[in-house]
Amino acid sequence: MDIGGGYHYFPGFLDRDAQRGLLALIRAVLASAPLYTPLMPGSGRPMSVRMSNCGPWGWVTDRERGYRYQRRHPETGEEWPPMPGAIAALWAELCAYPAMAESCLINYYGARARMGLHRDQDEEDFSAPILSISLGDEALFRMGGPARKDPTRSLRLASGDLVLMTGAARSSYHGIDRIVPGSSALLEEGGRFNLTCRRVHGPDWPHEVPR
Ligand code: MD3
Ligand code: FE
After folding, report:
1. In this predicted structure, what is the pLDDT of residue 209?
2. Is the pLDDT assigned to residue 211 strictly greater than 70?
3. Each residue of 162-183: pLDDT tens digit?
């Protein structure tokens, strides 16, 4: 459903079985690429959200080198695990884009975690959409426009909801005000996973033949 500004909302797109299936795939990814605590550039302040990635490129941040995509986990030094086929299939189904997602950022929110209003600007290609998949506790998602002063709307994202950002929304301010602890029983430990599938480079990457 088109909700304006380039945001497309698919409430309840994943049924309970599909959510459980994706969760099992994410747990398997995290067994080899554990969640780590990202640090803000400059201040070195820890973010409240813990992160990992799958797919060839992963988004990371630390005090010294700041926001970037890289091929390896910052703590284990290993390449990121492959993107599970079920996630790649959602990208192919929903994103009208002629190349596969290169990165799936895994965000984990505990009861008190939040994400301030920001734009995602570390990718080369802004013509590609971003696909967000929510699993676990509900979250209050704040959606703005391309300028920080633009008015914002709030959307309550539940487990199994998908949001697709295209056009203006791709460059828009957004954040997570808070989660709603105890609102889902999907995660035994509570909290919320959000998966965001991204294109990092233009549609012609990789330039080499994949191994
Ligand atoms: C709009 N994640 O990882 S998902 C992020 O729920 C991020 O964890 C939030 O913002 C979360 O960067 C929101 C929805 C989302 C993701 C990326 C976007 C919305 C976006 C990029 C551009 C515009
Ligand atoms: Fe973001």
Report:
1. 55
2. no
3. 999 999 999 999 999 999 999 9
**Cα 21 to middle of ligand 1, angstroms:** 22
**pLDDT bucket at 28, cuts 50 / 70 / 90:** very high
CA 184 to centroid of ligand 1, rounded, Å: 20
Q: What does pTM read for this prediction?
A: 0.97
Of 162, 145, 151, 52, the closest CA to residue 103 belongs to: 52
CB of 169 sitting under 6 A from ligand 1: yes
Identify the CA nearest to 53 among candidates 5, 108, 16, 10: 108
Kindly list the distances between the CA atom of residue 90 and the CA atoms of 85, 176, 181, in Å, as whole numbers in the listed order: 9, 23, 27
Q: Over the chain, what is the mean pLDDT?
A: 96
For residue 194, the cross-strand partners are 107, 134
Distance CA 71, CA 74 (A): 9
| Strand order across the 138-143 sheet | 115-118, 174-180, 138-143, 153-157
What is the spatial distance between Cα 141 and Cα 147, in angstroms, rounded to a whole number? 17
